[in-house]
Specification:
98 residues, two-stranded antiparallel ribbon
């Protein structure tokens, strides 16, 4: 359950209290995944053709296409030549590049 604290003077104290409660309850950081399947260039090509036809048909703007293409690059796993398993960190890294 999320807690919203509007009073700026109480935000840090409340966040600190909740962090302490979580630690006392035994919270541990989730294990990062290393088994995320991505499809590589073949999927990227399909995404790019789709966004190109949507932009040509005026369903999306040029800016929308630019954002969609960057998202497609990450979802496909970047410039990989074939489907493979990658780590969560790899996807975060290529997302940062995009």
């Amino acid at each position: 359950k999320d807690v919203v604290v509007v009073n700026k003077d109480r935000q840090i104290a409340t966040a600190k209290a909740y962090a302490k409660l979580m630690a006392d309850a035994g919270y541990t950081q989730p294990v990062k995944r290393t088994d995320v399947k991505v499809l590589g260039k073949q999927a990227l090509g399909m995404f790019l053709v789709g966004t190109d036809s949507m932009e040509d048909s005026n369903y999306i703007s040029e800016h929308d296409q630019k954002i969609a293409n960057k998202l497609a690059y990450v979802m496909a796993g970047g410039d990989l030549s074939e489907p493979t398993l990658v780590s969560e960190q790899y996807l975060l890294d290529i997302e940062r590049e995009a």
